[in-house]
Amino acid sequence: MNLSKRLSARTLAVLACAAALGSTLTACAPLVVGAAVGSGVLVATDRRTSGAQLEDQGIEMRAASRLREQFGDRARVIVTSYNRRVLLTGEVPSEADRATANRLVAGVENVREIVDELGVQSSPSFTARSSDSLVTARVKAALLDARDLSANAFKVVTERGTTYLMGRVTAREADRATDVTRSISGVQRVVRVFELISEEELARITPAPANGGSTR
Description:
Blueprint: H1 2-6, H2 9-26, E1 32-33, H3 50-71, E2 76-82, E3 85-92, H4 95-106, E4 113-116, E5 119-120, H5 126-145, E6 155-159, E7 162-169, H6 171-182, E8 189-196, H7 199-205
Parallel strand pairs: 1-2, 3-4, 3-5, 7-8
Antiparallel strand pairs: 2-3, 6-7
Helix pairs in contact: 2-5, 3-4
């Protein structure tokens, strides 16, 4: 593949690890909490405040618990929170269940907005979910390999061939990440769930390179 030829050895290693982790996550219970690969390692360069990062973790856990209590195995709802903005993906049996899921998550402390991308349909096969996980891994690796982007500024979720991009990014970064994602094999559609910031704000929140060296 042309993409593989362009990726560095480091990025290919990340891709392999991410794919393995993604497959493990999709094999879990039908109701799961979405998470970004490597977020613990790169938390120091996250563009959210430390408080917002903790709030996002709490939102994901509490929302998943409420949804699990409500639906059990009847639904597969993935909760991904970034800066208290919650993306709901997955599948529910009916429109009434979809409304219930939104209501339950909206009631979780610190949630400021919900982006509802739930499908009213049966859950995809294990093969389809594994394919989505591999696409997410490919996107993350491509963002990591893009020298003009900070990969840790993005959260990536793929469901039923649609890749969702989250993060606090500039308009320039949003467009560039979208172009990178669209070039990845398996991506059928890209949905941007960004919180846009100015170039001036980006400069303020970007840590200075240690000893004048490169940040990448």
